[in-house]
Specification:
This protein starts with a helix and ends in a 6-residue tail after the last helix. Strands 1, 2, 3, 4, 5, 6, 7 and 8 form an 8-stranded mixed sheet that branches. It is an alpha/beta fold. The radius of gyration is 18 Å and the shape is elongated. It has 2 domains: 50 residues, no CATH class; 102 residues, D-Maltodextrin-Binding Protein, domain 2.
Length: 162
């Protein structure tokens, strides 16, 4: 946002559906949050975990300020469940590597999980959270040709699914 507002960038991609008075936004995608663990970590046949169960597991979470972590912690507070990470990692790739190599559980959007044979995803049974990706630009710059054409291309490609 800072780079947009200082005119150092024309377009940004943010991970939230928040609205701002000075920005125009177009939703690109949304993806449900899922848990993931090393393939042999969960009991055989276990395909989902509740928030209360999650709180008892060694959580590997992203740094404070990550949208995924913020959403999860807010839900925990609402429900009176404390989610204390066993490990805090900088970035989703670091979370994936730590989870794949150790006994721990990570949380990520299904779209970000990717194909990693070392880990398996599981549903968060009583957690209905999702991550969004939104393309934004300064409202006052909507008539700049490159911005206008990029936004038109995003809209016409059908990538906006909301």
């Amino acid at each position: 946002m800072r780079r947009l507002r200082s005119f150092d960038a024309d377009i940004g991609v943010v991970g939230s559906g928040e609205s701002y008075d000075d920005l125009e936004a177009l939703s690109l995608s949304k993806s449900k949050l899922v848990g993931f663990a090393r393939r042999d970590f969960l009991p055989a046949g276990k395909r989902s975990i509740s928030l209360a169960e999650l709180a008892r597991l060694p959580l590997v979470l992203r740094e404070p300020g990550s949208k995924t972590r913020q959403q999860l912690e807010e839900l925990g507070k609402e429900r009176g469940v404390t989610l204390d990470p066993a490990v805090v990692a900088e970035g989703r790739e670091a979370v994936r590597e730590i989870v794949a190599a150790n006994d721990g559980v990570g949380i990520v959007s299904r779209a970000e999980l990717g194909e990693d044979q070392r880990v398996q995803a599981f549903e968060l049974e009583d957690i209905d959270l999702e991550m969004r990706e939104t393309v934004v630009h300064l409202r006052q710059r909507r008539d700049v040709r490159v911005i206008r054409e990029f936004m038109r291309m995003c809209q016409s490609s059908g990538s906006a699914n909301l």
